[in-house]
Amino acid sequence: MNIQQSFKDEENRPCLYLVPTPIGNLEDMTYRAVRILTEVDVVLAEDTRMTAKLFNHYQIKTPLKSFHDHSSNQRVDEIIQKILSGQKIALVSDAGMPLINDPGHPLVQEALKNNIPVIALPGANAALTALIASGLPATTFTYYGFYPRNKNDRQELLQFIKTQKETALFYESPYRITQMLQSFKSDYSPNAQVVIARELTKRFEEYLRGTVDEVLTHVKEQGIKGECVVLLEGLDDDPKKDQDPLLTLSISDHVKQLIEQEKIKPNAAIKKVAKIRQLPRSQVYNSYHNID
């Protein structure tokens, strides 16, 4: 068992500080974060060039050293020995909270093994910033990191999320947002509420709120740029909510809606409706063409 009394410990012995940095707007640094980064002996950064811009803005002169995903165990040991010898060291992310989809976990583990106090400062975080402004429930939620690239992994994850009935949070590249929304539509629910928060705290900050279908249509038509946080509502127990509204239409109207919405030819729409409804293609063809 380990008991850490952060403020008492930092007065009496060297510590490892985890310091969040702005996710876009430099004004989001806290007074305490600037003070700690100024007072420590060394600051570890994933990309020292990125952190140097922040340091220049706040006139922080502390030496910067590189620490990233590919840093070796030997590098971790060297840092631990420096702390044990009396140095105070801070770890920062390029943007946001350290360790959230960023390197640092092995360093924190080793620090704790060596009874070194690990002191985290509060600050900017893209996922939580997006959540509280999303309009989706924030009482219970789960952050899943970056959305899986493998189709089977995506389907497995969405099936799990269906059982949780809570808001799901993801990071995603704008280049994969369309694919992500399409998987939400086919493997989760086209009617679920989804929110995309992009370019948070920057000049072009934007929130897209709507159903999966609505947001997917918008993204296909308008495109999307910038770093994105994607939030997906948890499903309730109403089976109708998970049903594609097109399934409430007649077969003929369903085909017509697909032709209009997706700008596809009748034969392609007929084939798609047959697959969606698990009907013989001939039955859909006959319904669309009013053949008895």
TrEMBL record:
GO annotations of cellular component type: cytoplasm
Entry EC number(s): 2.1.1.198
InterPro entries (alphabetical): 4pyrrol_Mease, 4pyrrol_Methylase_sf, 4pyrrole_Mease_sub1, 4pyrrole_Mease_sub2, rRNA_ssu_MeTfrase_I, SAM_MeTrfase_RsmI_CS
GO molecular function, one term: rRNA (cytosine-2'-O-)-methyltransferase activity
Keywords of the record: Cytoplasm, Methyltransferase, rRNA processing, S-adenosyl-L-methionine, Transferase
Catalytic EC class: transferase
Reactions catalysed according to its record: cytidine(1402) in 16S rRNA + S-adenosyl-L-methionine = 2'-O-methylcytidine(1402) in 16S rRNA + S-adenosyl-L-homocysteine + H(+)
Domain Tetrapyrrole methylase: 16-215
Location (main, coarse): cytoplasm
Any Pfam family hit: TP_methylase
Keyword Manganese: no
Subcellular location: Cytoplasm
Role description: Catalyzes the 2'-O-methylation of the ribose of cytidine 1402 (C1402) in 16S rRNA.
HAMAP family named among the record's database cross-references: 16SrRNA_methyltr_I
Cited PANTHER family: RIBOSOMAL RNA SMALL SUBUNIT METHYLTRANSFERASE I
Family, per entry: Belongs to the methyltransferase superfamily. RsmI family.
The protein's name: Ribosomal RNA small subunit methyltransferase I
Species for this entry: Dolosicoccus paucivorans
Gene: rsmI
